[in-house]
Amino acid sequence: MKLHLHPLSLVFFFFFFFFRPTMSSNQHDYSDALSKSILFFEGQRSGYLPNDQRMTWRRNSGLSDGWTHNIDLTGGYYDAGDNVKFNFPMAFTTTMLAWSVIEFGEFMPSSELRNSLVALRWSSNYLLKSVSQLPNRIFVQVGDPIADHNCWERPEDMDTPRTAYAVNAPNPASEVAGETTAALSAASIAFRSSDPGYSQTLLQNAVKTFQFADMYRGAYSSNDDIKNDVCPFYCDFNGFQDELLWGAAWLRKATGDESYLNYIESNREPFGANDNVDEFGWDNKVGGLNVLVSKEVIEGNMYNLEAYKASAESFMCSLVPESSGPHVEYTSAGLLYKPGGSQLQHATTISFLLLVYAQYLSRSSLSLNCGTLTVPPDYLRRLAKKQQN
């Protein structure tokens, strides 16, 4: 049986280059970490590989994906040490990859910015295929996880079933559709200047995908025909409401549409986003949601969204050991710790949020207020850097 690993920490070395270190023998080479993190995506590719594939030991694989439904579902990324394409975490990885480019792309070397956009397009192209039969159907997974996890083999050699799992209206898939909405919306922003036509295609499909997510509310793992194949791998443990807010928030960022502003404002409490949350990952988006929306308050003076900023500040303060009130747990050596598996997923995602929030504060010449303690943006950066080191 394969050990099931969450691969989502793959994207978060992108912000390393933000530190722009001067290299010496006792410092980490962040630019090298950035390069290797982007390169890793090429090792996870499914489908027909391009001529400029740098990991030349990889070959074409998964070329029949989608044939049982008469649809092309080739492409995308394999999940971890397996050959399954789980759309829920893949969409989250896509969102985070795009967010990394949006916030820190200007600090990347031009070659690595190009490589990161290539990596982003590889997944966004696949997600476009997965929503191509909307408004009536969304594809949420390719590959039988039980058979796959019981057979360790190269993608090029796999002989396990390439089952394509679909959710048909009116059955719900709000968390997958909501996260796919976020991914396509964020990617549309990332490609806006370099490929405006593609950016518009992504945004149009994001709108359509959100309509499906919101109209048929519920968890995809509640569907009898697929729940035994999505659980216990990436079933919806945390509820689908955070993905609806997350998707709407990214649509708001991508479009500026007031309807999405009203959606995230009016549904914050009904959808449980007012709870204190000290995590951010493929299943729980509230921490990232609060940080993302807080930018509208910090830089846009949208004080009707002040509650999101207050939650973001509470989360940030819980990461500052010197502040009063409840704190997240750290190991004796200083690593952010949360009980359970996939430990580095938490350290990397939360470090990313620290850097993004520091970026928002810096642009407006603000600091974080934790009771009587004033925390400057550079402190948040140092805290994130300590985690990555």
UniProtKB/TrEMBL annotation:
GO terms (BP aspect): cell wall organization; cellulose catabolic process
Record field: transmembrane: none
Superkingdom of this protein's organism: Eukaryota
Enzyme Commission (EC) number: 3.2.1.4
Signal peptide, first to last residue: 1-24
One Pfam entry name: Glyco_hydro_9
Glycoside hydrolase family domain ranges (all copies): 30-387
Keywords, comma-separated and alphabetical: Carbohydrate metabolism, Cell wall biogenesis/degradation, Cellulose degradation, Glycosidase, Hydrolase, Polysaccharide degradation, Signal
InterPro entries: 6-hairpin_glycosidase_sf, 6hp_glycosidase-like_sf, Glyco_hydro_9
Reactions listed under catalytic activity: Endohydrolysis of (1->4)-beta-D-glucosidic linkages in cellulose, lichenin and cereal beta-D-glucans
Name of the protein this chain belongs to: cellulase
Organism: Arabidopsis thaliana (Mouse-ear cress)
Organism phylogeny: Eukaryota, Viridiplantae, Streptophyta, Embryophyta, Tracheophyta
